[in-house]
Amino acid sequence: MTRREKFFAFGTSIFSIFFVICLAPAIYFVATPITEKEILNYTLRIGIIITHIATATETILTKGKQLEFWELQRKLRNLYRSNQDDFDEAYRAMVDNFKRKIWLIVIMYTSIEAILLGIMLIISHGEPTRSTKIFLYGWILIFYPTKAGRTRHLSHIMAIEMLKKHVEFFNSTLRDIKVKLRSLSKEKSVEELNLIKFRHIYIWELCRNINSSFKWSQFVNICVNCFQFICMSFYLYIHIVTKNLTELFSEFMLY
């Protein structure tokens, strides 16, 4: 990374931390939670903010590990000199497949939120209630931290997909080399075995870097998601029993 890129990365991360910290009192003054449900919804939004702070903080603290991850990717690629074309083709296929997954998830999230928002406004006959207004203002304020938490999940999945592809290609080349070793000279066999050793070491390092870079932020992220799921299940039961569909859709928009 160049000095400008490092400055931009650090600057945006630090700015995002201070920005979301300021969101907590802003959401409180906008929502002014009074009832138990409003307090619970405010708590959910605070959890999303904490996830964002944990993500940005861990990103800054594990900068070296993240850069090392991409450096290990480059070193692994160089170790497949005899299978360079096959490796590049498999890597491109993996990237294209992941891009399709990202777009599918983004479209799904956006569509669900748009549909629920439309249904909620239709049911309320275009005259939002106090709870609907509180939700809309809160949803706008919490939009950025919510996407940060989801992006963290996608980043983690991307890293695991890359590791998975390296393991698959390593196993594939290992099977091929097992057959070739019988016809290779002693020096060539030693060279191939050394390449296998270094590939295995780099893959192990990749795994360790992933675990180090997505440790506490994902722990917080998953805990908040579990809390959201519990609340969503509770709201689903309560609103189906009371047949209050308007507030049911507004609650679902929090997730």
From TrEMBL:
<dbReference type="GO" id="GO:0050909">
    <property type="term" value="P:sensory perception of taste"/>
</dbReference>
<feature type="transmembrane region" description="Helical">
    <location>
        <begin position="219"/>
        <end position="238"/>
    </location>
</feature>
<keyword id="KW-1133">Transmembrane helix</keyword>
<feature type="transmembrane region" description="Helical">
    <location>
        <begin position="7"/>
        <end position="30"/>
    </location>
</feature>
<feature type="transmembrane region" description="Helical">
    <location>
        <begin position="102"/>
        <end position="123"/>
    </location>
</feature>
<dbReference type="GO" id="GO:0005886">
    <property type="term" value="C:plasma membrane"/>
</dbReference>
<keyword id="KW-1003">Cell membrane</keyword>
<keyword id="KW-0472">Membrane</keyword>
<keyword id="KW-0812">Transmembrane</keyword>
<feature type="transmembrane region" description="Helical">
    <location>
        <begin position="42"/>
        <end position="61"/>
    </location>
</feature>
<protein>
    <recommendedName>
        <fullName>Gustatory receptor</fullName>
    </recommendedName>
</protein>
<dbReference type="InterPro" id="IPR013604">
    <property type="entry name" value="7TM_chemorcpt"/>
</dbReference>
<dbReference type="Pfam" id="PF08395">
    <property type="entry name" value="7tm_7"/>
</dbReference>
<feature type="transmembrane region" description="Helical">
    <location>
        <begin position="129"/>
        <end position="146"/>
    </location>
</feature>
